[in-house]
Amino acid sequence: MSHADDDGSVIALWRSRLRRAIQGYDAVLSLPHRREIARELQDEEDLFMLLCFCDMMGIPNPVSDMTLELYPHMLERFHEWHQRQGMPRSPLDGFRCC
Amino acid sequence: MNAIWIALFGAVCFVMGYRFYSKFIAERIYRLDADFQTPAHTYRDGVDYVPTNKWILWGHHFTSVAGAAPIVGPAIAIYWGWLPAILWVVLGTVFAAGVHDFGAVVLSNRHKGHSIGTLANKLIGQRAKLLFLFIILILVLMVNAVFAWVIAKLFITFPASVLSVFIQIPLAVWIGYRVYRHSGSMLLPSVIALAVMYGAALLASEIPLLQIDLVSWFGGAEAPVVGGFNGTSMAFLVWIVVLMTYVYIASTLPVWKLLQPRDYINSHQLVVGLALLYLGLLFGAPEMTAPSVNGEADISWYPLLFITIACGAISGFHGLVASGTTSKQLDKETDARMVGYGGALGEGMLAMIAIIAVGTLFASGTDFTATYSSFSAAGSNGLGSFVKGAGQLAGNLGIPEHMGSTLVAVIVVSFAATTLDTAVRLMRYIIAELGNEYGMPVIARKHVATSIAVIASAALVILPEGPNGFGSGGYLLWPLFGTSNQLLAGITLMLVSVWLKRQGRPVVFTLVPMLFLLVMTLWAMGQQVIFTWSGFGDADRNLLLFTFGSLIMVFTLWILLEASRSFRQGDPAAQQQPLSSDESR
């Protein structure tokens, strides 16, 4: 193997190490930021979930015809949501996700 | 003595402490179990409970706990000479802070990632939780007042730093919007923001027109301005009003708009600051010119040293971070050793370089004595000395000293501002929690709780009067801040001890630092409350400090009585529902 190949692989090795170091550094600094963004998104998700399912909780929903069409797509998210709310099993009879 | 030897001594002690003592604590006392399912896995929710790589978690924990406090305390405590300060930082970190931070992570990890306040409720009782909440409230109030004073003082002493600090606000808002709206990494924009800030600082240190020097705007330090205020007092008042208005806005905005991007930029500054100082030390190899022991001190080093250096040796605030966020992100229980104990070592390194920066600043011991002529002079001049000393260390890297000092002032102000932002926000939450607890929902509202927090903090920083009149008494709060911080650490160690005893394990390794800390802190506090602030004998009465000091003492003694009852008899509630070691399995 020539010196040029050796030099190239050494540079590639150091470049990948540097990239990993920068990614690690970014991950350290982003950790609290990611948490706050995730929390805000989760709050929005909870509100959206409430708007979709409000008629099942006794709150009239004038657009239930439209939100009803969303239910098959929301099965998984609904399951995550009720678990997050501290309910291990689905609280709604008409919506058995688990 | 050459300062490199001191840094080397500290580094060797820290490495030995990690290699041997923390290993012993991990294996024999906390008995870490690699197979234990951590709360991050059990309650994984993608927000708070997220298993995280131990190196990343260590970095996050360290950047969360490191701030201006491990700089200010050591810069004041060097008054008694660098030797007692270094010994307390090194031994305190290895035998107290490491065990404390590590213990807080483990205790919380074994109890579903609960915070120390909730654990006080579980392990001691409901009253203890409320007392704990009050002690934290007093601590954050002190933090707000002390750090507002630190920032105002640095703005007055180093006016070239002001522009750079204020430029950071629109830059942070820009980064926040950019990342939140368009996603992507904050790394590159924050590095650009940092470059702009440092560019502004360097320019301002060269061009007087860019320096926002309120004192000269008011006609000079001693010039009468209005209502008996001189130039310095008026500048101080204006800065406090500006800072409090800023923290009000910052703590009520959604975090992604200002606080998070600002914290991100400031985290770079921790790395820049540490690199600047340690490389400056390595290249310059300066001599320690401050005396190793100050034989002319007007007040004894014990017990005051142990509350003057809180963060950097041991700090209760770390327990709040360790149990509040860090423990919820442990991937494996065995990572707690590196994250908790290692985080404390990082803080110790910061405190050590602060001592070295001040200790190498002066041309001779006589110069040191002139600046540090009394304990109150040390309180007033300590921070300025650190900034100048750090500028001198940076000078060894080819940076002109005045520019180096401006950069370091920007870094310290940024640390203090981050702490101030967080503490006001935390205070708002505690006031809201107390409002809900005592059936006063009005004060739980966002703007009411924030107003209470900001007004109380502003009053506390403005009211104490120092020897140089209005605005010069902020340093008087430092011992109170140190005391409440140390008492919190003592209470956390106590909770860890109660848990260890219930597990049938040796408690001596947590109980001894706890007793040492509580005895020294209560001794120092009692001395100040009874013999100084009460107006006993010839001392000048200070009703404000007397009231706060007395409150902290009463709360602490009360919580200690509750804890000792629980320690001796075992909590009945806990006995009915034993807190087994595998609670969250």
The strand count of chain A comes to 0
Helix-strand makeup class of chain B: mainly alpha
Biggest protein-protein contact in the assembly: A-B, 19 and 31 residues
Structural class of chain A: mainly alpha
Summarize the structure.
With 98 residues, chain A is an all-alpha fold. Chain A is built from three helices and no strands.
Describe the structure.
- The complex is a heterodimer of chains A (98) and B (585).
- Chain A has one domain (3-84).
- Helices cover 71% and strands 0% of the residues of chain A.
- Chain A has helices at 3-53, 64-68, 71-84.
- Chain A starts with a helix and ends in a 14-residue tail after the last helix.
- The model of chain A has no long low-confidence stretch (mean pLDDT 80).
- Chain B is an all-alpha fold.
- Chain B is 72% helix and 1% strand.
- A two-stranded antiparallel sheet of chain B has the order 1-2.
- In chain B, strand 1 and strand 2 (229-230) form a beta hairpin.
- The radius of gyration of chain B is 23 Å and the shape is globular.
- The relative contact order of chain B is 0.17.
- Chains A and B meet through helix 1 of A and helix 3 and helix 12 of B.
Please supply descriptive tags for the structure shown above.
heterodimer, A: 98 residues, mainly alpha, B: mainly alpha, 23 helices, 2 strands, globular
SSE blueprint:
The complex is a heterodimer of chains A (98) and B (585).
Chain A: H1 3-53, H2 64-68, H3 71-84
Chain B: H1 3-29, H2 39-42, H3 54-65, H4 69-77, H5 82-109, H6 116-123, H7 126-157, H8 160-182, H9 187-206, H10 214-217, E1 224-226, E2 229-230, H11 231-252, H12 259-284, H13 305-308, H14 316-324, H15 335-359, H16 365-371, H17 375-395, H18 401-437, H19 446-462, H20 477-502, H21 508-533, H22 543-569, H23 572-576
Antiparallel strand pairs in B: 1-2
